[in-house]
Prior knowledge:
single chain
Amino acid sequence: xxxxxIASGLxxxxxxxxxxxxxxxxxxxxAGRVTRVAPDGAKTTIATPGGGPNGAAIGPDGAxxxxxxxxxxxxxxxxxxxxxxxxxNYSGGRIERVDLATGAVTLLYRECxxxxxxxxxxxxxxxxxxxxxxxxxxxxxxxxxxRGGLYWAKADGSEIREVVYPLDSPNGVGLSPxxxxxxxxxxxxxxxxxxxxxxPGSITPAFGLGxxxxxxxxxxxxxxxxxxxxxxAEGHVCVATIGNGGITxxxxxxxxxxxxxxxxxxxxxxxxxxxxxRTAFATLSGTGRLVSFEWPRAGLPLA
Length: 303
């Protein structure tokens, strides 16, 4: 597998979004900014929302919608930049809208049903039902950590729903190609769950011992932690994997699992782009790089 390095010197990049002009819009969590990376690697700051901008997606109005986790403590260990506990300057979790032309940042949500968002992490727009799904990973402190959940909200800031709660360290979120399933990857358990979507912001729970009515797609053995995800056109759930560093592709029935190694143990996210959406763009966050490589299948066009 040939890996092409597009850019380096990024401050914990995440949330890559492929743009029609060939550039990648991503966030730099440690720097609190949204950055555009040109195909030649040139970097331009779009906005500086502060806190910890995390997962991102283009909304129906062409703006960038961002999960902001409120920030981390940061540590340099063995040449890697690592996020840590809730910082002293924690600015609160929120969902923000970023105007890509002007850089203006608009706050959409800080709470749900009067309960503050803690560490929103990843989001995906739902073309079939409207709105977007997002995860709240929560924050960690020295002696305790939050439980997280799966949420749904409207892009105009008028409605937000807590759909699945609690979950353990929910991170990546994505939809099946037909829009009938919502997938969530839990970081610390190394598990991917799915729920049947019943309508806008609602699910049909499965009966069993799963996470709050979820069905287990796969659980990875050993110390493999899961981060953000994307879904390809054949329905494989492609999860950024921390520890052994890379992308783990899980077939829609969970029967086939394939790992694509990348040179950073903190590989955190990916998106698909290029001709036929056959190129995967991945954020190597520990070493601050954006790379690309050929994916064996086409990516799923996003809403």
